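Inverse folding, one chain.
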């Protein structure tokens, strides 16, 4: 149910793609306490994004999760995701925005039902 969506101006090769997916799944699983089997990753590369009127490499990331995200979780994920993207894609953390989104359980569907109890 946690979802990682990356939008970046950088071109991503297959090796980088695999590393991003592995690292982000590890980070979300560890920080959210969720099974890796339910984490979704979507990567959109080589798209037109301008950050601060500059075309230097940049990224916009969405992290979506069912339930509440604590300030400690979002701080840790922000740090770790920025570091991973800097290491893998050479995008400086000051050129990365991350939007964290909490979804009520009844607004997230899977397997023909929602996560509402």
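Residues assigned per position:
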């Amino acid at each position: 149910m946690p979802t990682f969506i990356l939008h970046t101006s950088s071109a991503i090769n297959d090796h980088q793609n695999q590393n991003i997916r592995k690292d982000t799944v590890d980070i979300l699983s560890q920080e959210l306490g969720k099974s890796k089997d339910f984490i979704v990753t979507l990567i959109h590369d080589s798209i037109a994004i301008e950050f601060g009127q500059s075309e230097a490499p940049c990224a916009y990331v969405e992290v979506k999760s069912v339930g509440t995200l604590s300030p400690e979780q979002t701080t840790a994920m922000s740090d770790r995701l920025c570091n991973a993207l800097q290491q893998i894609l050479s995008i400086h953390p000051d050129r990365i925005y991350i939007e964290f989104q909490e979804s009520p359980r009844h607004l997230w569907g899977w397997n023909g039902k929602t996560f509402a109890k």
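The mean pLDDT is 96. Residues 14-32 form the longest helix (19 residues).
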